[in-house]
Amino acid sequence: MINLHHGSLLREQNQQDQDQQLSWPDKHRPKTVEEVALPSELRTQVQEWLSPGFPKHNILLHGLPATGKSSLAEAIAAEVFPEKQVDHVVRIKAAQTRSIEFVRDKLIKWIHARGGLIRAVDGDWKGLAVISEADGFTPESQASLKDAIEDYSGSVRFIFTTNRLERLDEAIQSRCEVIELPPPPVGERVRVLQRILAAEGAPQPEEELVEFCKAFIDLRDMLRTAQDSIAVEGRLTLPPPKIRKRGVEELWPDPVDGQLLLRDVQRTFERFLSLPDGAPLAVALWVVYAHCFDAFDISPLLAVTSPVKRSGKSTLFNVLSRLVPTPLFASNMSAAAVYRAVDARAPTLLADEADSWFSMRDDMRGIWNSGHTRWGARVLRSLGAGGLEELSTWCPKALALIRSVPKDLPSTIADRSIVISMRRRTPEEQVDRLRLDRLDAELSPLRMKAARWSADNIPALRDLDPSVPTDMDDRAADNWRPLLAIAELIGENAASRARLIARRLADPDGDIDEEGVAALADLRLSFAEEQTDRLPSQVIVSRLNSNEERPWGKRLDPRHLARLLRPFGIRSRSLWAEFGGQRSSVKGYFRDDCTEAFRRYLSEATHVLVA
Predict the structure, then answer these.
(1) Which is the CATH superfamily of the domain at 38-180?
(2) Class of domain 258-506
(3) Inter-residue contact 316 to 269 (CB < 8 Å)
(4) CB-based contacts of 524, cutoff 8 Å, min separation 6
(5) What is the pLDDT of residues 377-415, one digit of tens each?
(6) Which of 74, 136, 374, 529 has its CA 20 to 30 A from that of 156?
Protein backbone atom coordinates (compact mmCIF):
# COMPACT_ATOMS: atom_id res chain seq x y z
CA MET A 1 0.00 0.00 0.00
CA ILE A 2 1.37 3.44 -0.95
CA ASN A 3 1.89 5.86 1.92
CA LEU A 4 0.54 9.08 0.38
CA HIS A 5 1.16 11.04 3.57
CA HIS A 6 4.83 10.02 3.55
CA GLY A 7 5.18 11.11 -0.10
CA SER A 8 3.59 14.44 0.70
CA LEU A 9 6.02 14.99 3.57
CA LEU A 10 8.96 14.20 1.30
CA ARG A 11 7.74 16.68 -1.32
CA GLU A 12 7.28 19.32 1.37
CA GLN A 13 10.79 18.67 2.73
CA ASN A 14 12.29 18.86 -0.78
CA GLN A 15 10.53 22.16 -1.39
CA GLN A 16 11.86 23.54 1.92
CA ASP A 17 15.40 22.47 0.98
CA GLN A 18 15.07 24.18 -2.41
CA ASP A 19 13.75 27.36 -0.80
CA GLN A 20 16.71 27.46 1.59
CA GLN A 21 19.14 27.24 -1.33
CA LEU A 22 17.49 30.03 -3.30
CA SER A 23 18.77 33.57 -3.09
CA TRP A 24 16.27 36.05 -1.65
CA PRO A 25 15.76 37.92 -4.97
CA ASP A 26 14.56 34.64 -6.53
CA LYS A 27 12.81 33.18 -3.50
CA HIS A 28 10.81 36.34 -2.78
CA ARG A 29 10.14 37.50 -6.33
CA PRO A 30 7.03 39.75 -6.26
CA LYS A 31 3.78 37.95 -7.02
CA THR A 32 1.66 41.10 -7.36
CA VAL A 33 2.20 44.65 -8.57
CA GLU A 34 1.70 45.80 -4.97
CA GLU A 35 4.84 43.91 -3.93
CA VAL A 36 7.09 45.48 -6.58
CA ALA A 37 9.37 48.33 -5.51
CA LEU A 38 7.87 51.23 -7.49
CA PRO A 39 7.14 54.90 -6.96
CA SER A 40 3.57 55.04 -5.65
CA GLU A 41 2.17 57.04 -8.61
CA LEU A 42 3.65 54.53 -11.08
CA ARG A 43 2.18 51.60 -9.17
CA THR A 44 -1.24 53.24 -9.22
CA GLN A 45 -0.95 53.80 -12.96
CA VAL A 46 -0.10 50.15 -13.65
CA GLN A 47 -2.87 48.89 -11.38
CA GLU A 48 -5.41 51.05 -13.24
CA TRP A 49 -4.39 49.44 -16.53
CA LEU A 50 -4.99 46.03 -14.95
CA SER A 51 -8.29 46.91 -13.28
CA PRO A 52 -10.48 44.99 -15.79
CA GLY A 53 -8.31 41.91 -15.16
CA PHE A 54 -6.53 42.02 -18.53
CA PRO A 55 -4.10 44.78 -19.58
CA LYS A 56 -5.70 47.54 -21.63
CA HIS A 57 -2.50 48.06 -23.62
CA ASN A 58 0.76 46.43 -24.58
CA ILE A 59 3.43 47.61 -22.14
CA LEU A 60 7.05 48.55 -22.74
CA LEU A 61 9.20 48.78 -19.59
CA HIS A 62 12.57 50.47 -19.95
CA GLY A 63 15.23 51.94 -17.68
CA LEU A 64 18.63 51.28 -16.17
CA PRO A 65 19.63 47.72 -15.18
CA ALA A 66 18.32 46.46 -11.81
CA THR A 67 15.36 48.86 -11.63
CA GLY A 68 12.74 46.08 -11.44
CA LYS A 69 11.58 45.73 -15.05
CA SER A 70 11.57 41.92 -15.03
CA SER A 71 9.99 41.79 -11.57
CA LEU A 72 7.17 44.08 -12.68
CA ALA A 73 6.58 42.09 -15.88
CA GLU A 74 6.39 38.84 -13.91
CA ALA A 75 4.13 40.40 -11.29
CA ILE A 76 1.72 41.56 -14.01
CA ALA A 77 1.69 38.05 -15.48
CA ALA A 78 1.06 36.49 -12.07
CA GLU A 79 -1.72 38.96 -11.30
CA VAL A 80 -3.47 38.59 -14.66
CA PHE A 81 -3.14 34.79 -14.76
CA PRO A 82 -2.70 33.50 -11.19
CA GLU A 83 -3.42 29.95 -12.35
CA LYS A 84 -2.56 27.83 -15.41
CA GLN A 85 0.11 30.21 -16.65
CA VAL A 86 1.38 27.55 -19.03
CA ASP A 87 -1.85 28.01 -20.98
CA HIS A 88 -1.78 31.79 -21.03
CA VAL A 89 1.78 33.14 -20.63
CA VAL A 90 4.81 32.67 -22.84
CA ARG A 91 8.21 34.01 -21.74
CA ILE A 92 10.98 34.70 -24.23
CA LYS A 93 14.39 36.27 -23.70
CA ALA A 94 15.51 37.95 -26.89
CA ALA A 95 19.21 37.45 -26.18
CA GLN A 96 18.66 33.68 -26.44
CA THR A 97 16.38 33.71 -29.50
CA ARG A 98 17.15 36.77 -31.61
CA SER A 99 16.21 35.46 -35.04
CA ILE A 100 13.01 35.94 -36.98
CA GLU A 101 12.34 32.21 -36.76
CA PHE A 102 11.44 32.60 -33.09
CA VAL A 103 8.53 34.91 -33.96
CA ARG A 104 7.25 32.58 -36.64
CA ASP A 105 7.90 29.27 -34.93
CA LYS A 106 7.74 29.77 -31.18
CA LEU A 107 5.52 32.76 -30.49
CA ILE A 108 2.92 32.37 -33.25
CA LYS A 109 2.75 28.59 -32.92
CA TRP A 110 2.21 29.01 -29.18
CA ILE A 111 -0.63 31.46 -29.80
CA HIS A 112 -2.32 29.13 -32.26
CA ALA A 113 -1.74 25.96 -30.24
CA ARG A 114 -2.77 27.24 -26.80
CA GLY A 115 -5.41 29.63 -28.06
CA GLY A 116 -7.02 27.10 -30.38
CA LEU A 117 -7.08 24.35 -27.76
CA ILE A 118 -8.70 26.47 -25.06
CA ARG A 119 -11.13 28.19 -27.43
CA ALA A 120 -12.38 24.75 -28.45
CA VAL A 121 -13.29 24.06 -24.80
CA ASP A 122 -14.17 27.45 -23.30
CA GLY A 123 -14.96 29.51 -26.38
CA ASP A 124 -12.54 32.27 -25.39
CA TRP A 125 -8.80 32.68 -24.74
CA LYS A 126 -6.41 35.46 -23.69
CA GLY A 127 -2.64 35.32 -23.70
CA LEU A 128 0.34 37.31 -22.45
CA ALA A 129 3.77 37.37 -24.12
CA VAL A 130 6.60 38.56 -21.84
CA ILE A 131 9.55 39.55 -24.07
CA SER A 132 12.72 40.26 -22.06
CA GLU A 133 15.76 42.16 -23.40
CA ALA A 134 13.68 43.09 -26.44
CA ASP A 135 16.39 45.36 -27.85
CA GLY A 136 18.36 42.20 -28.65
CA PHE A 137 16.10 41.24 -31.55
CA THR A 138 17.35 41.70 -35.10
CA PRO A 139 15.57 44.41 -37.16
CA GLU A 140 13.79 41.68 -39.13
CA SER A 141 12.54 40.06 -35.95
CA GLN A 142 11.32 43.40 -34.62
CA ALA A 143 9.37 43.98 -37.83
CA SER A 144 7.78 40.54 -37.49
CA LEU A 145 6.95 41.28 -33.84
CA LYS A 146 5.22 44.46 -34.89
CA ASP A 147 3.06 42.42 -37.28
CA ALA A 148 2.26 39.92 -34.52
CA ILE A 149 1.16 42.74 -32.20
CA GLU A 150 -1.29 43.91 -34.86
CA ASP A 151 -2.50 40.47 -35.95
CA TYR A 152 -3.30 39.24 -32.43
CA SER A 153 -4.36 42.49 -30.75
CA GLY A 154 -7.74 41.03 -29.81
CA SER A 155 -6.40 38.16 -27.72
CA VAL A 156 -2.72 38.75 -26.81
CA ARG A 157 -0.98 41.50 -24.87
CA PHE A 158 2.77 41.99 -25.06
CA ILE A 159 5.05 43.11 -22.22
CA PHE A 160 8.49 44.18 -23.41
CA THR A 161 11.48 44.95 -21.19
CA THR A 162 14.64 46.71 -22.38
CA ASN A 163 17.61 48.63 -21.04
CA ARG A 164 18.07 50.35 -24.42
CA LEU A 165 14.91 52.02 -25.63
CA GLU A 166 16.71 53.58 -28.60
CA ARG A 167 17.44 50.12 -30.03
CA LEU A 168 13.78 49.16 -30.20
CA ASP A 169 11.85 49.83 -33.39
CA GLU A 170 9.67 52.93 -33.12
CA ALA A 171 6.82 50.92 -34.66
CA ILE A 172 6.84 48.68 -31.58
CA GLN A 173 7.17 51.62 -29.20
CA SER A 174 4.15 53.33 -30.78
CA ARG A 175 2.03 50.23 -30.13
CA CYS A 176 2.85 50.10 -26.41
CA GLU A 177 2.32 52.10 -23.25
CA VAL A 178 5.93 53.12 -22.60
CA ILE A 179 6.96 53.17 -18.93
CA GLU A 180 10.36 54.27 -17.68
CA LEU A 181 11.28 52.64 -14.38
CA PRO A 182 13.54 54.77 -12.18
CA PRO A 183 15.71 53.21 -9.44
CA PRO A 184 13.33 52.35 -6.57
CA PRO A 185 13.15 55.07 -3.88
CA VAL A 186 14.60 54.38 -0.43
CA GLY A 187 11.13 54.07 1.07
CA GLU A 188 10.22 51.37 -1.43
CA ARG A 189 13.46 49.48 -0.80
CA VAL A 190 12.68 49.56 2.92
CA ARG A 191 9.13 48.29 2.31
CA VAL A 192 10.34 45.37 0.19
CA LEU A 193 13.07 44.40 2.65
CA GLN A 194 10.63 44.59 5.58
CA ARG A 195 8.30 42.16 3.82
CA ILE A 196 11.11 39.68 3.10
CA LEU A 197 12.63 39.86 6.59
CA ALA A 198 9.21 39.22 8.09
CA ALA A 199 8.76 36.18 5.85
CA GLU A 200 12.19 34.92 6.90
CA GLY A 201 11.39 35.42 10.59
CA ALA A 202 14.15 38.01 11.02
CA PRO A 203 12.51 41.45 11.50
CA GLN A 204 14.89 44.38 12.08
CA PRO A 205 14.50 47.84 13.64
CA GLU A 206 13.20 50.35 11.11
CA GLU A 207 16.03 52.86 11.63
CA GLU A 208 18.59 50.14 10.80
CA LEU A 209 16.57 49.18 7.73
CA VAL A 210 16.61 52.75 6.44
CA GLU A 211 20.37 53.14 6.89
CA PHE A 212 21.00 49.77 5.25
CA CYS A 213 18.76 50.50 2.25
CA LYS A 214 20.34 53.92 1.66
CA ALA A 215 23.60 52.17 0.80
CA PHE A 216 22.12 50.44 -2.27
CA ILE A 217 20.55 51.34 -5.58
CA ASP A 218 20.58 47.82 -7.03
CA LEU A 219 17.71 45.98 -5.31
CA ARG A 220 19.11 42.52 -6.04
CA ASP A 221 22.48 43.44 -4.59
CA MET A 222 20.72 44.81 -1.49
CA LEU A 223 18.73 41.59 -0.97
CA ARG A 224 21.75 39.32 -1.51
CA THR A 225 23.78 41.36 0.99
CA ALA A 226 20.91 41.29 3.51
CA GLN A 227 20.60 37.52 3.13
CA ASP A 228 24.32 37.01 3.73
CA SER A 229 24.48 39.31 6.77
CA ILE A 230 21.38 37.75 8.39
CA ALA A 231 22.77 34.25 7.81
CA VAL A 232 26.17 35.09 9.29
CA GLU A 233 25.45 37.67 12.00
CA GLY A 234 21.71 37.57 12.48
CA ARG A 235 21.36 41.28 11.73
CA LEU A 236 21.83 43.74 8.86
CA THR A 237 25.45 44.78 8.39
CA LEU A 238 27.00 46.64 5.49
CA PRO A 239 30.00 44.95 3.86
CA PRO A 240 33.27 46.83 3.43
CA PRO A 241 33.67 48.64 0.09
CA LYS A 242 34.14 46.17 -2.76
CA ILE A 243 37.67 47.22 -3.64
CA ARG A 244 40.09 44.77 -5.14
CA LYS A 245 43.21 44.71 -2.99
CA ARG A 246 46.17 44.81 -5.36
CA GLY A 247 49.06 46.05 -3.31
CA VAL A 248 48.49 49.24 -1.37
CA GLU A 249 46.07 51.43 -3.32
CA GLU A 250 45.41 54.81 -1.73
CA LEU A 251 42.00 56.35 -2.42
CA TRP A 252 41.13 59.99 -2.99
CA PRO A 253 39.33 61.16 0.18
CA ASP A 254 36.28 62.66 -1.56
CA PRO A 255 33.80 61.28 -4.12
CA VAL A 256 35.06 61.75 -7.69
CA ASP A 257 33.11 63.09 -10.67
CA GLY A 258 33.55 60.53 -13.45
CA GLN A 259 33.33 63.07 -16.26
CA LEU A 260 36.11 65.20 -14.77
CA LEU A 261 38.23 62.12 -14.07
CA LEU A 262 37.93 60.88 -17.66
CA ARG A 263 38.65 64.37 -19.02
CA ASP A 264 41.79 64.76 -16.88
CA VAL A 265 43.19 61.32 -17.75
CA GLN A 266 42.55 61.93 -21.44
CA ARG A 267 44.25 65.34 -21.30
CA THR A 268 47.25 63.77 -19.59
CA PHE A 269 47.86 61.50 -22.57
CA GLU A 270 47.24 64.36 -25.02
CA ARG A 271 49.73 66.48 -23.14
CA PHE A 272 52.67 64.11 -23.57
CA LEU A 273 51.80 62.25 -26.78
CA SER A 274 50.57 62.71 -30.32
CA LEU A 275 47.96 59.97 -30.58
CA PRO A 276 45.57 59.02 -33.40
CA ASP A 277 42.05 60.40 -33.29
CA GLY A 278 40.06 58.75 -30.52
CA ALA A 279 43.04 57.00 -28.94
CA PRO A 280 43.37 59.38 -25.93
CA LEU A 281 39.81 58.61 -24.82
CA ALA A 282 40.25 54.87 -25.45
CA VAL A 283 43.43 54.72 -23.37
CA ALA A 284 41.84 56.87 -20.64
CA LEU A 285 38.90 54.44 -20.42
CA TRP A 286 41.35 51.54 -20.26
CA VAL A 287 43.11 53.20 -17.31
CA VAL A 288 39.82 53.46 -15.43
CA TYR A 289 39.00 49.89 -16.45
CA ALA A 290 42.31 48.70 -14.92
CA HIS A 291 41.13 50.06 -11.56
CA CYS A 292 37.73 48.36 -11.68
CA PHE A 293 38.38 45.34 -13.90
CA ASP A 294 37.12 43.00 -11.14
CA ALA A 295 33.62 44.15 -12.14
CA PHE A 296 33.95 42.39 -15.51
CA ASP A 297 34.37 38.90 -16.95
CA ILE A 298 36.35 40.02 -20.02
CA SER A 299 39.83 41.54 -19.82
CA PRO A 300 40.69 43.27 -23.12
CA LEU A 301 44.38 43.50 -23.85
CA LEU A 302 45.68 46.97 -24.71
CA ALA A 303 47.95 46.40 -27.73
CA VAL A 304 50.06 49.44 -28.63
CA THR A 305 51.76 49.12 -32.00
CA SER A 306 53.75 51.26 -34.41
CA PRO A 307 55.44 50.59 -37.76
CA VAL A 308 58.74 52.21 -36.66
CA LYS A 309 60.64 53.18 -33.53
CA ARG A 310 60.34 56.57 -31.79
CA SER A 311 56.56 56.68 -32.17
CA GLY A 312 55.83 57.23 -28.48
CA LYS A 313 55.15 53.70 -27.21
CA SER A 314 57.58 53.89 -24.30
CA THR A 315 56.29 57.34 -23.37
CA LEU A 316 52.75 55.99 -23.34
CA PHE A 317 53.79 53.12 -21.07
CA ASN A 318 55.63 55.45 -18.72
CA VAL A 319 52.45 57.48 -18.29
CA LEU A 320 50.31 54.34 -17.99
CA SER A 321 52.53 52.95 -15.25
CA ARG A 322 51.83 56.04 -13.08
CA LEU A 323 48.04 55.87 -13.54
CA VAL A 324 47.09 52.18 -13.27
CA PRO A 325 46.92 50.19 -10.01
CA THR A 326 49.81 47.93 -8.98
CA PRO A 327 51.81 48.37 -12.19
CA LEU A 328 54.30 45.66 -13.14
CA PHE A 329 56.47 47.12 -15.92
CA ALA A 330 58.93 44.94 -17.84
CA SER A 331 60.76 44.88 -21.17
CA ASN A 332 61.35 41.15 -21.05
CA MET A 333 59.83 38.26 -19.11
CA SER A 334 59.46 34.51 -19.13
CA ALA A 335 56.17 32.64 -19.25
CA ALA A 336 56.68 31.35 -15.72
CA ALA A 337 57.37 34.87 -14.46
CA VAL A 338 54.09 36.07 -15.96
CA TYR A 339 51.74 33.54 -14.40
CA ARG A 340 53.53 33.50 -11.03
CA ALA A 341 53.57 37.30 -10.78
CA VAL A 342 49.92 37.56 -11.80
CA ASP A 343 48.84 34.82 -9.39
CA ALA A 344 50.74 36.38 -6.47
CA ARG A 345 50.11 40.09 -7.02
CA ALA A 346 47.23 40.59 -9.50
CA PRO A 347 49.14 43.50 -11.09
CA THR A 348 48.47 45.62 -14.12
CA LEU A 349 50.99 44.00 -16.45
CA LEU A 350 52.78 46.39 -18.83
CA ALA A 351 55.05 44.66 -21.36
CA ASP A 352 57.16 47.09 -23.40
CA GLU A 353 59.35 46.19 -26.40
CA ALA A 354 57.51 42.89 -26.69
CA ASP A 355 58.50 42.49 -30.35
CA SER A 356 61.92 41.25 -29.19
CA TRP A 357 60.62 38.31 -27.12
CA PHE A 358 56.88 37.78 -27.46
CA SER A 359 55.74 36.59 -30.87
CA MET A 360 58.05 33.60 -31.33
CA ARG A 361 57.07 31.93 -28.05
CA ASP A 362 53.92 29.82 -28.15
CA ASP A 363 53.83 29.31 -24.38
CA MET A 364 53.83 33.07 -23.81
CA ARG A 365 51.02 33.66 -26.30
CA GLY A 366 48.99 30.90 -24.68
CA ILE A 367 49.28 32.53 -21.26
CA TRP A 368 48.29 35.97 -22.53
CA ASN A 369 45.40 34.45 -24.49
CA SER A 370 44.12 32.60 -21.41
CA GLY A 371 43.76 35.83 -19.44
CA HIS A 372 41.07 37.20 -21.75
CA THR A 373 38.14 35.68 -19.83
CA ARG A 374 37.77 35.31 -16.07
CA TRP A 375 36.69 31.66 -16.27
CA GLY A 376 39.57 30.69 -18.56
CA ALA A 377 42.33 32.69 -16.83
CA ARG A 378 44.13 29.66 -15.38
CA VAL A 379 47.24 27.66 -16.13
CA LEU A 380 48.09 24.26 -14.65
CA ARG A 381 51.63 23.29 -13.70
CA SER A 382 52.87 19.93 -12.48
CA LEU A 383 54.20 19.64 -8.93
CA GLY A 384 55.53 16.14 -9.49
CA ALA A 385 54.21 12.86 -8.09
CA GLY A 386 50.86 13.52 -9.75
CA GLY A 387 50.30 16.91 -8.07
CA LEU A 388 48.96 19.92 -9.96
CA GLU A 389 49.17 23.63 -9.23
CA GLU A 390 46.51 26.03 -10.55
CA LEU A 391 47.72 29.60 -11.15
CA SER A 392 45.76 32.68 -12.19
CA THR A 393 46.46 34.75 -15.31
CA TRP A 394 43.59 37.16 -14.60
CA CYS A 395 44.71 40.81 -14.59
CA PRO A 396 44.75 43.87 -16.89
CA LYS A 397 47.53 43.61 -19.50
CA ALA A 398 49.09 45.99 -22.00
CA LEU A 399 51.60 45.14 -24.70
CA ALA A 400 53.78 47.36 -26.90
CA LEU A 401 55.31 46.12 -30.18
CA ILE A 402 56.78 47.42 -33.41
CA ARG A 403 54.26 45.74 -35.67
CA SER A 404 51.44 46.44 -38.09
CA VAL A 405 47.98 45.28 -37.07
CA PRO A 406 46.54 42.82 -37.80
CA LYS A 407 49.11 41.64 -40.35
CA ASP A 408 52.09 40.92 -38.07
CA LEU A 409 50.53 40.77 -34.61
CA PRO A 410 49.61 37.18 -33.66
CA SER A 411 45.99 36.79 -34.69
CA THR A 412 44.88 35.38 -31.33
CA ILE A 413 46.36 38.42 -29.58
CA ALA A 414 44.92 40.94 -32.06
CA ASP A 415 41.53 39.27 -31.65
CA ARG A 416 41.60 39.90 -27.89
CA SER A 417 42.91 43.45 -28.06
CA ILE A 418 41.94 47.07 -28.18
CA VAL A 419 44.57 48.21 -30.65
CA ILE A 420 46.20 51.63 -30.53
CA SER A 421 48.27 52.22 -33.67
CA MET A 422 50.87 54.82 -32.77
CA ARG A 423 52.37 57.25 -35.26
CA ARG A 424 55.50 59.33 -35.33
CA ARG A 425 54.61 62.94 -34.58
CA THR A 426 55.32 65.71 -37.05
CA PRO A 427 57.46 68.77 -36.24
CA GLU A 428 54.27 70.85 -36.04
CA GLU A 429 52.83 68.68 -33.25
CA GLN A 430 54.13 70.00 -29.96
CA VAL A 431 53.88 68.00 -26.72
CA ASP A 432 55.22 68.51 -23.21
CA ARG A 433 58.53 66.94 -22.37
CA LEU A 434 58.19 63.92 -20.09
CA ARG A 435 60.09 64.43 -16.83
CA LEU A 436 60.31 60.99 -15.23
CA ASP A 437 61.68 62.44 -12.00
CA ARG A 438 58.47 64.45 -11.52
CA LEU A 439 55.92 62.12 -13.04
CA ASP A 440 55.03 60.11 -9.91
CA ALA A 441 54.20 63.15 -7.82
CA GLU A 442 52.35 64.83 -10.67
CA LEU A 443 50.10 61.89 -11.60
CA SER A 444 49.58 60.35 -8.16
CA PRO A 445 46.41 62.40 -7.41
CA LEU A 446 44.88 61.26 -10.70
CA ARG A 447 45.62 57.62 -9.89
CA MET A 448 44.02 58.04 -6.44
CA LYS A 449 40.92 59.59 -8.01
CA ALA A 450 40.60 56.69 -10.45
CA ALA A 451 40.89 54.26 -7.52
CA ARG A 452 38.18 56.12 -5.58
CA TRP A 453 35.80 56.24 -8.55
CA SER A 454 36.34 52.51 -9.02
CA ALA A 455 35.66 51.74 -5.36
CA ASP A 456 32.40 53.69 -5.47
CA ASN A 457 31.13 52.31 -8.78
CA ILE A 458 32.17 48.64 -9.06
CA PRO A 459 28.74 47.42 -7.80
CA ALA A 460 26.92 49.42 -10.48
CA LEU A 461 29.34 48.30 -13.21
CA ARG A 462 28.79 44.63 -12.39
CA ASP A 463 25.14 44.82 -13.45
CA LEU A 464 25.48 47.30 -16.31
CA ASP A 465 24.92 45.98 -19.84
CA PRO A 466 26.14 48.81 -22.08
CA SER A 467 24.93 49.66 -25.55
CA VAL A 468 27.45 48.24 -28.04
CA PRO A 469 27.50 49.26 -31.72
CA THR A 470 25.62 46.61 -33.68
CA ASP A 471 28.07 46.66 -36.59
CA MET A 472 30.97 45.40 -34.44
CA ASP A 473 31.80 41.69 -34.56
CA ASP A 474 31.27 39.60 -31.43
CA ARG A 475 34.89 39.55 -30.25
CA ALA A 476 35.36 43.30 -30.75
CA ALA A 477 32.10 43.88 -28.88
CA ASP A 478 33.37 41.71 -26.00
CA ASN A 479 36.63 43.66 -25.87
CA TRP A 480 34.93 47.04 -25.80
CA ARG A 481 32.03 46.18 -23.48
CA PRO A 482 33.92 46.95 -20.20
CA LEU A 483 35.10 50.33 -21.52
CA LEU A 484 31.66 51.19 -22.86
CA ALA A 485 30.09 50.25 -19.51
CA ILE A 486 32.42 52.68 -17.74
CA ALA A 487 31.66 55.42 -20.26
CA GLU A 488 27.92 54.80 -19.96
CA LEU A 489 28.02 55.04 -16.17
CA ILE A 490 29.96 58.28 -16.43
CA GLY A 491 27.40 59.89 -18.72
CA GLU A 492 25.74 59.86 -22.12
CA ASN A 493 28.27 62.27 -23.64
CA ALA A 494 31.15 59.96 -22.72
CA ALA A 495 29.16 56.93 -23.87
CA SER A 496 28.33 58.33 -27.32
CA ARG A 497 31.97 59.35 -27.88
CA ALA A 498 33.20 55.96 -26.70
CA ARG A 499 30.85 54.09 -29.05
CA LEU A 500 32.04 56.20 -31.99
CA ILE A 501 35.70 55.55 -31.13
CA ALA A 502 35.04 51.85 -30.58
CA ARG A 503 33.78 51.57 -34.15
CA ARG A 504 36.77 53.45 -35.48
CA LEU A 505 39.47 51.55 -33.58
CA ALA A 506 37.83 48.14 -33.99
CA ASP A 507 38.15 48.57 -37.77
CA PRO A 508 41.83 49.27 -38.45
CA ASP A 509 41.12 49.40 -42.20
CA GLY A 510 44.08 47.25 -43.15
CA ASP A 511 47.81 47.82 -43.11
CA ILE A 512 49.95 50.55 -44.59
CA ASP A 513 52.24 48.94 -47.17
CA GLU A 514 54.50 50.02 -50.05
CA GLU A 515 51.68 49.92 -52.57
CA GLY A 516 49.62 52.25 -50.40
CA VAL A 517 52.51 54.70 -49.97
CA ALA A 518 53.04 54.67 -53.74
CA ALA A 519 49.37 55.49 -54.31
CA LEU A 520 49.60 58.28 -51.73
CA ALA A 521 52.62 59.80 -53.48
CA ASP A 522 50.92 59.65 -56.87
CA LEU A 523 47.79 61.22 -55.42
CA ARG A 524 49.76 64.18 -54.11
CA LEU A 525 51.48 64.55 -57.48
CA SER A 526 48.06 64.48 -59.17
CA PHE A 527 46.76 67.34 -57.01
CA ALA A 528 49.90 69.38 -57.83
CA GLU A 529 49.86 68.79 -61.57
CA GLU A 530 46.11 69.31 -61.94
CA GLN A 531 46.38 72.45 -59.75
CA THR A 532 43.15 71.69 -57.93
CA ASP A 533 41.96 70.94 -54.42
CA ARG A 534 39.68 68.06 -55.46
CA LEU A 535 39.79 65.22 -57.96
CA PRO A 536 37.20 62.59 -59.03
CA SER A 537 38.21 59.00 -58.30
CA GLN A 538 38.05 58.11 -61.99
CA VAL A 539 40.52 60.88 -62.88
CA ILE A 540 42.94 59.73 -60.18
CA VAL A 541 42.70 56.11 -61.30
CA SER A 542 43.37 57.08 -64.91
CA ARG A 543 46.48 59.02 -63.91
CA LEU A 544 47.79 56.26 -61.62
CA ASN A 545 47.27 53.56 -64.27
CA SER A 546 49.35 55.56 -66.75
CA ASN A 547 52.50 54.69 -64.77
CA GLU A 548 53.24 51.07 -65.69
CA GLU A 549 56.10 50.85 -63.17
CA ARG A 550 53.71 51.06 -60.23
CA PRO A 551 52.90 47.72 -58.48
CA TRP A 552 49.29 47.72 -59.66
CA GLY A 553 50.24 48.10 -63.37
CA LYS A 554 47.04 49.13 -65.16
CA ARG A 555 44.68 47.20 -62.87
CA LEU A 556 43.69 49.98 -60.47
CA ASP A 557 40.00 50.87 -60.17
CA PRO A 558 38.19 53.25 -57.74
CA ARG A 559 37.44 50.46 -55.26
CA HIS A 560 41.09 49.31 -55.18
CA LEU A 561 42.19 52.94 -54.76
CA ALA A 562 39.86 53.33 -51.77
CA ARG A 563 41.35 50.23 -50.11
CA LEU A 564 44.89 51.56 -50.59
CA LEU A 565 44.09 54.98 -49.10
CA ARG A 566 41.85 53.86 -46.24
CA PRO A 567 44.71 52.92 -43.82
CA PHE A 568 45.88 56.54 -44.02
CA GLY A 569 42.47 57.77 -42.84
CA ILE A 570 41.59 59.04 -46.32
CA ARG A 571 38.09 58.35 -47.63
CA SER A 572 36.27 59.43 -50.74
CA ARG A 573 33.48 62.01 -50.63
CA SER A 574 30.90 63.31 -53.08
CA LEU A 575 31.97 66.22 -55.25
CA TRP A 576 30.71 68.01 -58.36
CA ALA A 577 32.59 67.44 -61.60
CA GLU A 578 32.00 68.23 -65.26
CA PHE A 579 31.90 65.42 -67.81
CA GLY A 580 30.88 65.96 -71.43
CA GLY A 581 29.60 69.44 -70.65
CA GLN A 582 27.36 68.14 -67.85
CA ARG A 583 27.91 68.73 -64.11
CA SER A 584 27.19 65.71 -61.95
CA SER A 585 27.89 64.38 -58.46
CA VAL A 586 30.67 61.78 -58.33
CA LYS A 587 32.96 60.21 -55.76
CA GLY A 588 36.38 61.73 -55.32
CA TYR A 589 39.03 63.07 -52.96
CA PHE A 590 39.79 66.48 -51.43
CA ARG A 591 43.38 67.58 -50.92
CA ASP A 592 42.60 68.92 -47.42
CA ASP A 593 41.56 65.40 -46.37
CA CYS A 594 44.99 64.10 -47.43
CA THR A 595 47.28 66.79 -46.01
CA GLU A 596 48.06 65.05 -42.72
CA ALA A 597 48.89 61.74 -44.43
CA PHE A 598 51.13 63.56 -46.92
CA ARG A 599 53.09 65.15 -44.04
CA ARG A 600 53.45 61.92 -42.07
CA TYR A 601 54.28 59.36 -44.75
CA LEU A 602 55.90 61.13 -47.70
CA SER A 603 59.38 62.59 -48.03
CA GLU A 604 60.31 66.26 -47.91
CA ALA A 605 60.88 66.22 -51.68
CA THR A 606 57.24 65.40 -52.19
CA HIS A 607 56.25 68.29 -49.89
CA VAL A 608 58.23 70.71 -52.06
CA LEU A 609 56.76 69.27 -55.23
CA VAL A 610 53.18 70.05 -54.27
CA ALA A 611 53.70 73.30 -52.41
Answers:
(1) P-loop containing nucleotide triphosphate hydrolases (3.40.50.300)
(2) alpha beta
(3) yes
(4) 594, 598, 602, 606, 609, 610
(5) 877 776 655 566 778 888 999 988 775 444 456 667 778
(6) 136
